[in-house]
Amino acid sequence: MKRHKFVKLMLKRANGKPATRGEAFAPANIALCKYWGKRDADLNLPVNSSLSISLGKLGTKTVVKFAKTADRVFLNGKPAPKDFADRISKYLDLFRADGQFFEVRTKNNIPTAAGLASSASGFAALVKALDQLLGWGFNPRELSMLARLGSGSATRSLYEGFAVWHAGVRADGMDSYAESFSNAWKDLRVGILEVSNVRKKTGSTDGMNRTVETSELYEAWPAQADCDFDELRTAVAAQDFTLLGETAENNALAMHATMLAAWPPLCYWKPQTLALMQKVWQARENGLELYFTIDAGPNLKLLFLKENQAAVKKLFPKVQIVNPFSS
Ligand code: DP6
What is the pTM of this model? Predict the structure, then answer.
């Protein structure tokens, strides 16, 4: 498998000191320009570049140690469900020496698998913790490429604030990494509107593969994503909120349109998701500058500026407001 070769090449660069434990936090991230579709499934290389904002203190904390006879995986203080533990063990297979096992204790302060990108923060925190335990001494760019093998969106969770994940063009994936982008945008706020935290039936991996294989509309996606990626970089660099909000909302809806045109159809929305979208559109018609984005799940993430925080809270009393740049 190509990913084993990729890891072998990467580990040749390791130059740190191993330890007896590793501990790290990584933030969740919300894509403003979405990653949707793989150009290489084994190396997890995306069709298009993406851009995200990390959620400050919301994310995953992970501790890794060596274990004696088998991997032991804990999620939020309890033995992890089998599918979760298996996914982690499979990822650890990439790095383990013969007869080496790991104990992984991971805690999320966001719902797992509800489209709130917990696999992103999960693999980013794990790879940072492994870097300490196994003594790789890698920089964030190198770690982002290893996190990518766990989950594409994890590539971006190595950073606070804005991150861009370059799709790259190389077949070996060595130019597909994430880096931090631009300065703090102190007045930007993200609002989380949770519709459901039930584990979704179709995960992102299967969802995007089905879309690429069966959706006629997917053909239009790479060009739109490229264009949105450029617009969003401009918006972030200039702190142009209107450009950011309009581009991010349109990008999310275009992604969901490709899914609706897949077969069997793929719709991550619940009736309440649509009701909330309409509420945002109505608020905008009434003069409130408010936008949303939605990942492969039913929950909305609102985008607005600090000056509108009170108005947003009044309209959506249950919203969880995040300041991505609070220290
Ligand atoms: C809609 O990163 O979960 O959230 O690489 O297959 O693990 P895999 O997929 P994943 O997909 C995220 C899709 C998205 C958009 C995004 O975060 O860019």
Answer: 0.96
Average pLDDT (304-309) is 98
Are 3-180 and 188-322 equal in CATH topology? no
- Please determine, looking at this structure, whether the domain spanning 188-322 carries the CATH number 3.40.190.10: no
Mutate to test the pocket of ligand 1, among 34, 43, 204 (most ligand atoms within 8 A of CB): 204
Q: How many CB atoms lie within 10 A of CB 200?
A: 15
Q: What is the predicted pLDDT for the residue at 115?
A: 47
119 in contact with ligand 1, CB cutoff 6 A: yes
Q: How far is the CA of 35 from the centre of ligand 1 (A)?
A: 6
Going by C-alpha positions, the residue among 54, 59, 62, 162 that lies closest to residue 112 is: 59
* Nearest-angstrom CA–CA distance, 256 and 142: 31
* Both tokens assigned to 280: 């945002």
Q: Determine the Cα–Cα distance for residues 71 and 92; give it in Å rounded to an integer.
A: 9
197 confidence band (pLDDT: 50, 70, 90): confident
Helix H or strand E encompassing 131: helix 118-134
Give the full edge-to-edge strand order of the sheet including 320-322: 291-293, 300-305, 188-193, 320-322
Q: How much is the pLDDT for 111?
A: 57
| Residues in Cβ contact with 287 at an 8 Å cutoff, skipping those fewer than 6 apart | none
Would you say the CB of residue 151 lies under 6 angstroms from ligand 1?
yes
pLDDT higher than threshold 70 for residue 96: yes
Mean pLDDT of all residues in the chain? 95
**Residue ranges covered by each domain of the chain:** 3-180, 188-322
CATH of domain 3-180: 3.30.230.10
Give the pLDDT score at 113.
43
